[in-house]
Amino acid sequence: MANKGPAYGMSRDVQSKIEKKYDDELEDRLVEWIVAQCGSSVGRPDRGRLGFQVWLKNGIVLSRLVNSLYPDGSKPVKIPDSPPTMVFKQMEQIAQFLKAAEDYGVVKTDIFQTVDLFEAKDMAAVQRTLVALGSLAVTKNDGNYHGDPNWFMKKAQEHKREFTESQLKEGKNVIGLQMGSNKGASQAGMSYGRPRQIIS
Protein backbone atom coordinates (compact mmCIF):
# COMPACT_ATOMS: atom_id res chain seq x y z
CA MET A 1 0.00 0.00 0.00
CA ALA A 2 1.04 3.64 -0.40
CA ASN A 3 1.63 4.28 3.32
CA LYS A 4 4.03 1.35 3.83
CA GLY A 5 7.54 2.60 4.52
CA PRO A 6 10.83 0.79 4.09
CA ALA A 7 11.53 -2.22 6.29
CA TYR A 8 14.40 -2.18 8.78
CA GLY A 9 16.07 -4.71 11.06
CA MET A 10 14.38 -8.05 11.55
CA SER A 11 11.38 -7.35 9.30
CA ARG A 12 13.79 -6.48 6.50
CA ASP A 13 15.69 -9.74 7.03
CA VAL A 14 12.45 -11.73 7.00
CA GLN A 15 11.27 -10.02 3.80
CA SER A 16 14.61 -10.63 2.12
CA LYS A 17 14.44 -14.36 3.02
CA ILE A 18 10.93 -14.56 1.57
CA GLU A 19 12.08 -12.87 -1.65
CA LYS A 20 14.99 -15.32 -2.01
CA LYS A 21 12.50 -18.21 -2.22
CA TYR A 22 11.16 -16.82 -5.51
CA ASP A 23 12.30 -18.99 -8.44
CA ASP A 24 12.98 -17.22 -11.77
CA GLU A 25 13.12 -20.51 -13.73
CA LEU A 26 9.79 -21.57 -12.26
CA GLU A 27 8.37 -18.19 -13.28
CA ASP A 28 9.28 -18.92 -16.92
CA ARG A 29 7.58 -22.32 -16.78
CA LEU A 30 4.45 -20.89 -15.15
CA VAL A 31 4.20 -18.11 -17.74
CA GLU A 32 4.51 -20.68 -20.54
CA TRP A 33 1.77 -22.78 -18.97
CA ILE A 34 -0.60 -19.85 -18.39
CA VAL A 35 -0.18 -18.68 -22.00
CA ALA A 36 -0.66 -22.24 -23.32
CA GLN A 37 -3.71 -22.73 -21.09
CA CYS A 38 -5.44 -19.37 -21.66
CA GLY A 39 -4.20 -18.35 -25.10
CA SER A 40 -1.95 -15.49 -26.19
CA SER A 41 -4.63 -12.89 -25.35
CA VAL A 42 -3.40 -12.84 -21.74
CA GLY A 43 -0.09 -11.38 -22.90
CA ARG A 44 3.24 -11.92 -21.18
CA PRO A 45 4.72 -10.24 -18.11
CA ASP A 46 7.98 -8.37 -17.84
CA ARG A 47 10.66 -10.72 -16.54
CA GLY A 48 11.23 -10.82 -12.82
CA ARG A 49 9.25 -10.97 -9.61
CA LEU A 50 7.64 -7.55 -9.92
CA GLY A 51 6.72 -8.03 -13.59
CA PHE A 52 5.04 -11.33 -12.70
CA GLN A 53 3.20 -9.65 -9.81
CA VAL A 54 1.92 -6.78 -11.98
CA TRP A 55 0.70 -9.27 -14.62
CA LEU A 56 -1.36 -11.24 -12.09
CA LYS A 57 -2.29 -8.40 -9.71
CA ASN A 58 -5.81 -7.58 -10.97
CA GLY A 59 -6.86 -11.25 -10.83
CA ILE A 60 -8.08 -11.48 -14.45
CA VAL A 61 -5.25 -13.75 -15.70
CA LEU A 62 -5.66 -16.02 -12.67
CA SER A 63 -9.44 -16.18 -13.18
CA ARG A 64 -9.01 -17.09 -16.84
CA LEU A 65 -6.51 -19.77 -15.83
CA VAL A 66 -8.79 -21.50 -13.34
CA ASN A 67 -11.80 -21.19 -15.69
CA SER A 68 -9.80 -22.87 -18.49
CA LEU A 69 -9.42 -25.98 -16.31
CA TYR A 70 -13.18 -26.56 -16.31
CA PRO A 71 -15.30 -27.79 -19.24
CA ASP A 72 -17.32 -25.24 -21.22
CA GLY A 73 -20.48 -24.18 -19.44
CA SER A 74 -19.19 -24.58 -15.88
CA LYS A 75 -16.84 -21.69 -15.22
CA PRO A 76 -16.43 -21.04 -11.46
CA VAL A 77 -15.18 -17.44 -11.66
CA LYS A 78 -17.11 -14.56 -13.21
CA ILE A 79 -14.79 -12.36 -15.23
CA PRO A 80 -15.83 -8.71 -15.78
CA ASP A 81 -15.86 -7.28 -19.31
CA SER A 82 -13.18 -4.73 -18.47
CA PRO A 83 -10.36 -5.34 -15.97
CA PRO A 84 -11.16 -3.91 -12.54
CA THR A 85 -9.32 -0.70 -11.66
CA MET A 86 -10.49 -0.23 -8.07
CA VAL A 87 -8.30 -1.90 -5.45
CA PHE A 88 -11.08 -3.76 -3.64
CA LYS A 89 -12.47 -5.11 -6.94
CA GLN A 90 -9.03 -6.45 -7.89
CA MET A 91 -8.61 -8.07 -4.48
CA GLU A 92 -12.11 -9.54 -4.79
CA GLN A 93 -11.16 -11.04 -8.18
CA ILE A 94 -8.06 -12.65 -6.61
CA ALA A 95 -10.20 -14.00 -3.75
CA GLN A 96 -12.58 -15.58 -6.29
CA PHE A 97 -9.61 -17.29 -7.95
CA LEU A 98 -8.40 -18.61 -4.58
CA LYS A 99 -11.87 -20.01 -3.77
CA ALA A 100 -12.09 -21.67 -7.21
CA ALA A 101 -8.57 -23.14 -6.80
CA GLU A 102 -9.55 -24.61 -3.44
CA ASP A 103 -12.75 -26.04 -4.94
CA TYR A 104 -10.63 -27.55 -7.73
CA GLY A 105 -8.63 -29.45 -5.11
CA VAL A 106 -5.67 -27.28 -4.08
CA VAL A 107 -5.14 -27.79 -0.34
CA LYS A 108 -5.37 -24.79 1.99
CA THR A 109 -1.68 -24.98 2.90
CA ASP A 110 -0.74 -24.46 -0.77
CA ILE A 111 -2.97 -21.39 -1.23
CA PHE A 112 -1.47 -17.92 -0.95
CA GLN A 113 -3.10 -14.98 0.81
CA THR A 114 -4.52 -12.14 -1.31
CA VAL A 115 -1.93 -9.66 0.04
CA ASP A 116 0.90 -12.04 -0.90
CA LEU A 117 0.11 -11.23 -4.52
CA PHE A 118 -1.51 -7.82 -4.33
CA GLU A 119 1.26 -6.21 -2.26
CA ALA A 120 4.00 -8.59 -3.54
CA LYS A 121 4.63 -9.76 0.04
CA ASP A 122 5.32 -13.41 -0.90
CA MET A 123 5.43 -14.13 -4.62
CA ALA A 124 6.98 -17.55 -3.90
CA ALA A 125 3.66 -18.50 -2.25
CA VAL A 126 1.86 -17.44 -5.44
CA GLN A 127 4.18 -19.72 -7.41
CA ARG A 128 3.44 -22.61 -5.00
CA THR A 129 -0.30 -22.19 -5.54
CA LEU A 130 0.08 -22.18 -9.33
CA VAL A 131 2.33 -25.26 -9.23
CA ALA A 132 -0.21 -27.09 -7.05
CA LEU A 133 -2.99 -26.13 -9.49
CA GLY A 134 -0.93 -27.32 -12.46
CA SER A 135 -0.09 -30.61 -10.73
CA LEU A 136 -3.77 -31.25 -10.05
CA ALA A 137 -4.70 -30.45 -13.64
CA VAL A 138 -2.07 -32.90 -14.96
CA THR A 139 -3.18 -35.56 -12.48
CA LYS A 140 -6.88 -35.26 -13.33
CA ASN A 141 -6.07 -35.83 -17.01
CA ASP A 142 -9.61 -34.81 -18.03
CA GLY A 143 -8.67 -33.14 -21.32
CA ASN A 144 -8.81 -29.57 -19.97
CA TYR A 145 -5.06 -29.25 -19.33
CA HIS A 146 -3.04 -27.66 -22.14
CA GLY A 147 0.72 -27.56 -22.31
CA ASP A 148 3.54 -29.96 -21.61
CA PRO A 149 2.53 -32.53 -18.95
CA ASN A 150 6.18 -32.67 -17.83
CA TRP A 151 5.96 -29.10 -16.51
CA PHE A 152 4.28 -30.41 -13.34
CA MET A 153 4.58 -33.51 -11.18
CA LYS A 154 1.60 -35.83 -11.04
CA LYS A 155 0.06 -36.08 -7.59
CA ALA A 156 -0.09 -39.52 -5.98
CA GLN A 157 -3.43 -41.17 -6.52
CA GLU A 158 -5.34 -43.61 -4.37
CA HIS A 159 -4.84 -47.27 -5.23
CA LYS A 160 -7.69 -49.02 -3.51
CA ARG A 161 -7.44 -52.76 -2.95
CA GLU A 162 -10.30 -55.17 -2.38
CA PHE A 163 -9.80 -58.36 -0.36
CA THR A 164 -12.17 -61.31 -0.03
CA GLU A 165 -13.21 -62.61 3.38
CA SER A 166 -11.02 -65.71 2.97
CA GLN A 167 -7.96 -63.56 2.18
CA LEU A 168 -8.60 -61.47 5.28
CA LYS A 169 -8.88 -64.62 7.44
CA GLU A 170 -5.62 -66.00 6.03
CA GLY A 171 -3.87 -62.79 6.98
CA LYS A 172 -4.77 -63.29 10.66
CA ASN A 173 -2.69 -66.51 10.77
CA VAL A 174 0.52 -64.89 9.56
CA ILE A 175 2.91 -63.46 12.10
CA GLY A 176 4.31 -60.29 10.65
CA LEU A 177 8.07 -59.78 10.48
CA GLN A 178 7.81 -56.72 12.69
CA MET A 179 6.65 -58.99 15.54
CA GLY A 180 10.14 -60.52 15.72
CA SER A 181 10.93 -63.97 17.06
CA ASN A 182 11.32 -65.31 20.58
CA LYS A 183 13.10 -68.53 19.64
CA GLY A 184 16.22 -68.99 21.74
CA ALA A 185 15.67 -65.75 23.63
CA SER A 186 16.59 -65.58 27.29
CA GLN A 187 17.95 -63.05 29.70
CA ALA A 188 20.89 -65.22 30.71
CA GLY A 189 24.08 -63.26 31.04
CA MET A 190 22.38 -59.88 31.01
CA SER A 191 23.19 -57.41 33.76
CA TYR A 192 21.95 -53.91 34.27
CA GLY A 193 24.15 -51.33 35.96
CA ARG A 194 26.79 -51.94 38.62
CA PRO A 195 26.27 -54.46 41.40
CA ARG A 196 25.35 -52.98 44.76
CA GLN A 197 28.40 -51.94 46.76
CA ILE A 198 28.38 -52.90 50.43
CA ILE A 199 30.69 -50.77 52.48
CA SER A 200 31.28 -51.67 56.10
TrEMBL record:
Keyword Acetylation: yes
Top-level taxonomic group: Eukaryota
InterPro entries in UniProt: Calponin-like (IPR050606), Calponin_repeat (IPR000557), CH_dom (IPR001715), CH_dom_sf (IPR036872), SM22_calponin (IPR003096)
Region annotation (Disordered) ranges: 179-200
Keyword Membrane included in the entry's annotation: no
Gene Ontology cellular-component annotations: cytoplasm
Membrane spanning stretches: none
SMART domains registered for this protein in UniProt: CH
Gene3D superfamilies cross-referenced by the UniProt entry: Calponin-like domain
Domain Calponin-homology (CH) span(s) in chain numbering: 24-137
Keywords noted in UniProt: Acetylation, Cytoplasm, Muscle protein
Biased composition (Polar residues): 179-189
Main localization of the protein described in the UniProt heading: cytoplasm
Localization, UniProt: Cytoplasm
Family: Belongs to the calponin family.
Protein name: Transgelin
Protein species of origin: Alectura lathami
Lineage: Eukaryota, Metazoa, Chordata, Craniata, Vertebrata
